């Protein structure tokens, strides 16, 4: 039986995520009514996933539900904001209850894990497209900006780089890999670094999440901060799967230019480095110092043999 728009919203999205006392009114009225705690600013972000652009039509609905929320939580992480509320705009070719169940299972499981409430949205018919807006709290005046990096700051990244891009390369070229399942998880079920983002408050001078590739995203920090950087390729944190690829190909484009990792790249002044390492240990979140900020503009990459490494890859631009 076909589902009506309102039955669909009621069944799959009316009680999704965590119940929060700061939601005075959630799904069901013209607006949600939300209470920002005193002393906090609201950080707001929105990301859209379009079929054929951001994901293959074959991707499982549960993974899409997860990822559409994860990429937004990752933006909150990059600003040190604590996730609170999300809204969801869903454009669907048809109201398929099995697809919707799997999608909402993936979406709502991550919402519960992250402590966020789904408080509203919009549901329309058309080519499959998913927009999520996420909102979180950051203490007044404490959010860092991309513009905060200073010469001498260390450049750090969380987790490992290039796995999602290798998953795509493997899917496109049928490249044989024992690590296919690990890579697919990294591409389709990214884990946003919200605990790390909050721990970086008072430590990071700038941060960004790596959605378009390390070079592109670090490049945003450098341009906004009017500084340059030196990065050591030998220090880029790589999974076993990516390390094997690097040994086979000697091609650094995946960890440097590959997008969709949703790790954090951030800068920390030397006096905060010990506190950063202690926090990362407490959270069991690997962080790696890959280089440093310099006053000299531009990005210098040093190959493992000490030579300069030239790269043309700049990351993903939808309109390039
Ligand atoms: P309106 O026409 O007043 O914009 P809608 O009919 O679009 O309201 O939506 C009814 C209610 O359901 C609203 O509270 C809206 O926020 C919520 N809603 C609609 N679609 C979704 C969705 N995909 N997820 C969560 N809430 C939704
Ligand atoms: Mg509406």
State the strand order across the main sheet.
Answer: 8-10-7-11-9-12-13
The percent of residues in helical segments reads 25-40%
Small-molecule binders here are: adenosine-5'-diphosphate, magnesium ion
- The total count of helices amounts to 10
Largest sheet: 7 strands, mixed
Which parts are unreliable, with pLDDT below 50 for 5 consecutive residues or more? none
Fraction of residues in β-strands: 25-35%
SSE class: alpha+beta
Question: What's the alpha carbon Rg, rounded to whole Å?
Answer: 20 Å
Helix and strand element order: HEEEHEHEEEHHHEHEHHEHEEE
Tell me how many strands there are: 13
Provide the residue-averaged pLDDT.
Answer: 93
| Spatial shape | globular
Distance between the termini: 44 Å
How would you explain this protein's 3D organization?
This protein is α+β, with helices and mostly antiparallel strands and 320 residues long. Helix content is 34%, strand content 26%. The protein contains 10 helices and 13 strands. The chain has a 7-stranded mixed beta sheet with strand order 8-10-7-11-9-12-13. Strands 3-6-4-5 form a 4-stranded mixed beta sheet. A two-stranded antiparallel sheet has the order 1-2. α2 runs parallel beside α3 (97-114) and α4 crosses α5 (180-188). The longest helix has 18 residues, at 61-78. The protein is globular, with a radius of gyration of 20 Å. The mean pLDDT is 93. Bound molecules: adenosine-5'-diphosphate and magnesium ion. Residues 9, 13, 27-30, 88, 90, 118, 120-123 line the site of adenosine-5'-diphosphate.
